Amino acid sequence: MNHPEIASSLMFKGMLEKNRTLEKNALVGKVRRFLPDEVWGVIREEAESEGLGILTLGMPEAAFLQGASGPSQGLFVMECLVEAARNALRHEVPDCRPVALFTAGPAEAVMILAHPPGREATLAKAYPDIRRETLSAAARHAFGPDEPSLPLAVGYSAIDIAHPDDRERMDRASLGAYLRAVRLGRENTAEMLDTRARLHELFLTIMRDKLLQPAYQPVVDFAPGTVLGYEAFLRGPKDTPFHDPLALLSFAESIGQVFALEQLFFQTAVAGLGPMEPGQLLFINIHPASFTDPQFTPAGIPGYLGDHGLTPGNLVFEFTERQTAGDLDILQQKLELYRDSGIRVAMDDIGAGNMTLRALCRIRPDFIKADVSVIGGIQSNPFNRVMMETLVCLGEKIKGRVIAVGIESETELTSLASMGVQAGQGYYFSRPEFPKPLVT
Questions:
Q1: Among residues 119, 121, 176, which one has the least CA distance to residue 294?
Q2: Which tens digit of pLDDT belongs to each residue from 44-93?
Q3: What pLDDT digit, counting tens, does each position of 337-355 carry?
Q4: Which domains can be identified in the chain, with CATH numbers?
Q5: In the record, which residues are listed under signal peptide (predicted)?
Q6: 173: burial class by Cβ within 10 Å (0-12, 13-18, 19+)?
Q7: Spatial CA neighbour of 302 closest among 337, 272, 347
Q8: Among the four residues 112, 136, 161, 180, which has the most C-beta atoms within 10 Å?
Q9: What's the rounded Cα separation, in Å, for the pair 364 and 227?
């Protein structure tokens, strides 16, 4: 791919002068797309063999328009930022090439970067140094050593290129990367940037080297006293900040990688499960962000399950009651795609939030998982008993089995069984472990 390198600030100056009277993000509103046509063409070509990233360069818009010399001073500062960023990239990551440049407003430039596949972790690690070099050089050239400088911003994010030929998806992926880069560029302490860069590098290493570690907790069927199935819990590598699943998911959400993380976890959980008895189930949680991802479809799941001796009938996707806060119709449509393929559905954390009976009745989950807050001390808490008895009654009406989560004592177990609860899980039976624990 022989795109001329973004060689001079003159080109950027011309672009800025062309757009200088537009409101911020006017380009997006005008064409209803984030990427200009010529930039989309470059991205599509580069994505065939290269990884892509986005670098945002900006300054306060008020300072750009109202500086001592007016917008011409702002143009000069932006030119210095672009040139300084090019030099910093050349110095820190020589095999990373700027291949396109456009404006997202009069005081903000967007630079598209191409690099060899697999270099995302290297760029994430180098970002703090790229930012420091860019800001230092731009301020020195634009303001001189003795002049007060303006607050300038440099942000970075990788672009997900899962669908390089689909313009709508690539536009959405690029816009998401742009927003993450802008947000990162506003983090203005060196310590914060260094910490985030280290976490970003660790996250990308986990994804690249497939370092997730599932743990399995048995779900016990009370009547026969056998294992109904196992719930898979997400864990990052031990002795890292991402061993905590909440920290791992939170960071993935902040960089737009929840679906990629859950894809890898699904594959890891299935591959690590080991032999299953006929009819046993694997429960896997689905993060709310995945339900809005266009890649979230059943395609490929039956084949992957079959490679490990499972069928869609062995799989249960769990989601929490928080997800019903949005459009129930959209949620139902998503769930029906999976049910049609044989995958079952569980609603988790029931009783912990504001789940309505209407939502439960509309979704009609195959399994209703009562939250640990309802289970604790149920033998002596009349309110919790009423709630559990109501869930059992509702489950019978909609043909959904009730599973109690967080059972820690024999007293809780016998109380739940006496109320008609059919299954449960918790430390009384086993903690989540790898490999999956055997319950007798």
A1: 176
A2: 999 888 899 999 998 877 666 665 445 677 788 889 899 999 999 999 99
A3: 899 999 999 999 888 766 6
A4: 9-204 (3.30.70), 211-425 (3.20.20.450)
A5: none
A6: buried
A7: 337
A8: 112
A9: 23
Task: Tell me the C-alpha distance between 61 and 72, whole Å.
Answer: 13
Exposed / middle / buried, residue 179 (Cβ in 10 Å: 0-12, 13-18, 19+): middle
Q: Which helix (H) or strand (E) holds 159?
A: none
Mind listing the pLDDT tens digit for each residue in 356-397? 677 788 889 999 999 998 998 898 999 999 999 999 999 999
Q: At what angle do helices 190-209 and 245-254 cross, to 10 degrees?
A: 100
Determine contact, residues 138/151, Cβ cutoff 8 Å. Answer: no
> What is the pTM (predicted TM-score) of this model?
0.71
CA-to-CA distance for 16 and 74, rounded, in angstroms? 10
3-state secondary structure of 155: strand
Cα→Cα distances 274→135, 307, 431, 438, Å: 52, 12, 18, 12
β-partners of residue 233 are 215
